[in-house]
Design brief:
The structure is a single chain. The chain is mainly α and 266 residues long. The chain has one domain. Helix content is 80%, strand content 0%.
Length: 266
């Protein structure tokens, strides 16, 4: 049975209240700017130096954009861990007993990560543009920001699927997010083109939204026509929507199982 959109949005808003509280407990504006942002800028600089050492200007740009986009991927995948926090807090049974929409709640529950990832990746790209000739025009900058936001949100949908699996094995949550991050970095075009890998790996990589997000932002940087950029962005959005549908089904199944278990005890 389809869930009314208003109920979904209400659940997402309720989840986001928790997300904001969690993020405020993690960071102040000083620790976010002076700690996390500086750390990720150093990471992008490190990987960019690899491209510079190769001595190929095109590959340097490839590495700069790949390393920067991987920041929002890594941050979005922090949702794998935060999806299990309700278990640790003992609030998961209460959620399961409530009429909350599972997919909506968990979509809002960890939304601080893709939003933070959008900001950090955008700052990284703009800062790296001061040191490497990425050739952005003033008109390109809003498009860059939109593509980063799209990539962050679509990868968040992937993280929600992994997060639903992590609810079943919460002790493995950090391992799961680390393995997915490494696989995405290796196979989805951040370091080497997707075509470098055997065809089956390339086909699998095309199911991951960041592969298309990287294609879109690199096409924009290379001066491709907007139709090419929009096509890649559309594929990223489509992949993200499919992962979101899978995540919604996964959380619905988890709650249905928990509710059946609760009913059996009454």
């Amino acid at each position: 049975m389809a869930t009314h959109p208003v109920r979904v949005l209400t659940a997402a808003r309720q989840g986001f209240v928790v997300a904001r509280a969690d993020f405020a407990a993690f960071y102040t504006w000083k620790t976010w700017l002076g700690g996390w942002l500086v750390r990720v800028l150093c990471q992008v600089t490190f990987y960019s130096m690899i491209g510079a050492m190769v001595g190929d200007a095109d590959y340097t740009v490839h590495m700069v954009l790949g390393a920067a986009l991987m920041i929002c991927v890594a941050e979005s995948l922090m949702a794998v861990a935060s999806s299990t926090w309700d278990l640790n807090l003992g609030t998961f049974p209460l959620l399961a007993a409530s009429p909350v929409v599972p997919g909506g709640y968990f979509a809002g529950r960890s939304a601080m990560w893709p939003l933070s990832g959008t900001v950090t990746t955008s700052v990284a790209i703009l800062v790296m543009s001061l040191f490497f000739d990425l050739g952005w025009s003033a008109a390109d900058v809003p498009l860059v920001l939109l593509l980063v936001l799209l990539t962050s949100l679509s990868m968040y949908c992937v993280a929600l699927v992994v997060g639903a699996l992590a609810v079943l094995v919460p002790g493995a949550r950090n391992v799961m997010s680390a393995v997915v991050t490494m696989a995405v970095t290796a196979f989805c075009g951040a370091v080497v083109p997707v075509g470098f890998w055997p065809d089956p790996v390339g086909w699998a990589a095309r199911t991951v939204p960041v592969t298309h997000g990287l294609d879109a932002i690199r096409a924009l940087q290379a001066g491709a026509d907007l139709a090419s950029v929009a096509r890649s962005a559309g594929l990223a959005a489509l992949a993200g929507a499919l992962w979101l549908a899978l995540a919604t089904a996964a959380f619905r199944a988890l709650f249905a199982h928990a509710r059946r278990g609760s009913a059996a005890l009454t």
